[in-house]
Write a structure and sequence with these properties.
Length: 246
């Protein structure tokens, strides 16, 4: 997507396409809340679990599965020009420009989803309509949930150079390769971001003037969707050294 807001949507089952801009590396690096188990049990499906936890029962099962599939699709785009899709910026990138690109991407995809729904009950949509809705909505859910990740929050820099992926990539993944634990602020922000986007789609909440702070890149999640005074996960774990992550 260009800075002017034009989208690379296509009418395929996956819903959108963005040109890869990967220089000399493949697309298997996962710089975000992990979204699928690519290597045995190495990665926790955080995006899919959040969708299941929050939207199961609120939407048709077919849409639920399509939304989870869309998380895998968008994760295929990992080049420097695609990092804003995961609330990251490339090495030496302009943070404000990347935030603006993410802002436009979220807003335009959500508008397209609202146009498709047209105020109808989501259970009345055809299978083809559910597929299109999942592409738009899945895109939005992905980027806002990534923006709550400890390795992304505030649009952190991600160095895509092959040598840095080897040296720092594993540490990046370890920061977020788990579902945040109950009682942590990370859990409520992750879960709350999914509900917020759904509420905007069905007009239970209004479209904000900015999804992300223009300067810091922090997600402007309304406090009604999370508990700001809860401890961070690291604080809980420091008091519970044998706490098992789930």
């Amino acid at each position: 997507m260009d800075i002017d807001g034009s989208l690379h949507h296509i009418n395929s089952p996956k819903g959108f396409q963005i040109k890869l801009k990967i220089a000399g590396i493949d697309g298997d690096v996962i710089p975000m809340w992990s979204s699928q188990d690519r290597f045995g049990r190495a990665f926790v499906s955080v995006h899919q679990k959040a969708i299941d936890r929050i939207l199961k029962g609120q939407i048709p099962e077919e849409l639920l599965e399509k939304l989870k599939d869309q998380q895998i699709t968008i994760d295929e785009y990992q080049g420097d020009g695609d990092l804003y899709l995961h609330a990251n910026i490339p090495k030496d990138g302009d943070k404000q420009i990347e935030i603006e690109k993410a802002e436009i991407f979220v807003r335009e995809n959500l508008k397209e989803a609202q146009k498709l729904l047209k105020g109808r009950d989501v259970f009345s949509l055809s299978d083809s309509e559910l597929t299109k809705l999942a592409s738009y909505l899945g895109n939005v859910i992905h980027i806002v949930t990534d923006s709550t990740s400890p390795a992304h929050e505030g649009f952190q820099e991600f160095d895509n150079r092959p040598i840095m992926l080897i040296l720092k990539g594993p540490f990046h993944v370890l920061q977020e390769n788990h579902y945040p634990i109950e009682g942590s602020i990370e859990r409520t922000r992750l879960d709350g971001s999914v509900q917020w986007i759904w509420d905007i789609l069905v007009k239970k909440n209004t479209m904000p003037s900015n999804f992300f702070d223009k300067n810091t890149g922090q997600l402007n999640l309304p406090e009604k969707y999370y508990h700001p005074h809860l401890p961070k996960q690291i604080e809980i774990e420091s008091k519970n050294p044998k706490f098992w992550r789930i």
